[in-house]
Amino acid sequence: MPDLLTKDEITIRFQYHAPKTGQPEKYLVIRAAAKDLAGIIAAACPDSREKALAVTCLEESVMWANAAIARRE
Question: What is the pTM of this model?
């Protein structure tokens, strides 16, 4: 199996990525959609561990989506 954690990949993952033109707008769209879904989850689901996990996973999704934009564009 090839080593997927090359020096270049480590650099990409751990360096600062200044926003490029158009990226902040993408971040806002993703965050707005996640906020809408979080509101739906908050209203529709009973307070529970599962509800908390759903919101945590949504936060993780936003983070990873933003990382994809920052790291790979």
Answer: 0.89
The full set of domain ranges for the chain reads 20-72
Q: Determine the Cα–Cα distance for residues 25 and 31; give it in Å rounded to an integer.
A: 10
CA distances from 68 to 33, 40, 51 (A): 17, 25, 26
**Which tokens in the block code for residue 59?**
């936060």
- What is the distance between the alpha carbons of residues 49 and 46, in angstroms, rounded to a whole number? 9
Q: Cα angle at 45 between 30 and 66, to 5 degrees?
A: 15
**pLDDT tens per residue across span 31-56:** 999 999 999 999 999 999 999 999 99
Q: Show the tokens assigned to 46.
A: 């009973």
